[in-house]
Amino acid sequence: MRRIFAVVAVLVLASGVGVVGGQAASAESGGPDRSIDGLPGSGPCSTDPPATHASLIPERLEVPIPYPRIIEVPFPAPETPTIRIDAPPLPADPCADPCPDLTNVPLPPATGLSSTLGLPQISANFTPFNFGIPVQGSGNGPLLPDPPVPAHPVTENAPLAPPLAAPRVGAVTMVAKETGASSVNRTDKRWQVDGTDLGIMWESEPGKIAVAFGDTVGRDFHPPGGQGQDWRSNVLAFSTDRNLSNGMSFDEMVQDSRCHAAEILGSRKLDNVEITTIPTSGFALGSRQYLSYMSIRTWNSIPGTMFTNHGGIAYSDDGGQTWTKDPYAQWDNIFGLARFQVTAMVPQGGYVYMFGTPNTRLGEIGLARVPEDQVLNKSAYQYWSSGTWTAVGGAASATPILSGPAGELSVRYDAGRDRWQMTYLDTAKTSITLRESAAPQGSWSESTPLVGVDRYPELYGGFIHPWSTDGELYFMLSTWSDYNVFLMRAELS
């Protein structure tokens, strides 16, 4: 109900619909060349209507009303079959709908007094808030592998580097709408991805970028948020597009059926047990892909935040088609206060650095590192604690490298400048901010706002594209009112 009041209050400040990229995006203006460097058939359709931002006053709003339910919860979770198909090539004509029988099915027209008067259709969505009773599973779950051999890393000095000046940011423009209807990727037509968020990127192999998204819906999608049918906790796309000035085209998505993006990390979808599983970062070491994730217990905690079961690591040995959640590489959320629930992991110099915050978007930032060949071995992690790398005390020993509030980290190592970049949502400054440092532990520069709520009132995310340069920072932005993802460009000097 608080969400409804907030939306109504904003009407006075910002109502109506805006054209995407209207402030500077050449991809939306129709003038410059909109050619895309991805595979044939990828990229935008020239006859699609212009992408627009949804009004902050939604046409339809489902108000979740939780009710208590006691339920047996089997442990381990039952194993569900994994179905994958080879992604067929896209039609040569980007405007061709590859599956009109699936994506062009009309929905029943809106009826009732609200639609007649042009008012939001508000409905109650009664959802169970579960109190789980653990029970023994049926025995069809996966067999646990042997645990890693315990490691005993020594304590090492890790002094702070001198602080850098705050980044100098010039114009920040919206390049293109990346997902949903009228996006440069037409994901609603090609993969039944009508609404999604995040857009976490890493180089999965030379010349290819993987893009992981959060909760995703298809048919009957209606923002704000992920309202609609065909809910998947996450999906994964791939891109070889190097010309980001007019948008980032997707060559393919991991699919489980014709024109349907697959959920790559399963979840129980039981509120207050495990409602969903959300990717937080990704990286590749050799042929193996890694994905950090958070197991969300419930969204019904502090408004706008989340409560996790644990942060964890999954891996893929088949190019991202199928994933395994490692049973030992998990950081439990003890008393709801544990760090490293929402993490950004970056390989550099023989180590993988793990930047992490507690659940919610309000916590401080901690740091750990692990040798590249020990990523799944929790005992091999060293935590930065007051000038040292130490395993003593585990994750609880980590001292903050930055104070909060910080949410949804994205970290990149810029090899050309030997410099670290970090973006995150700073809820105190109501903006996505950028910092830089000469070392992962800091000292980190003062933050510089990239984009704030004055332009996009319900923004979040801010995930850096790995192929950004010293003069251009590309990042993915999500908005709750659109519940889709947009490519942004920031000029750096």
Automatic annotation (TrEMBL):
Residues 1-24 form the signal peptide. Keywords: Signal. It comes from Rhodococcus tukisamuensis. Residues 183-489 form the DUF4185 domain. InterPro entries: DUF4185 (IPR025442). The keyword Signal applies. Residues 22-53 are annotated as: Disordered. It comes from the Bacteria. This is DUF4185 domain-containing protein.
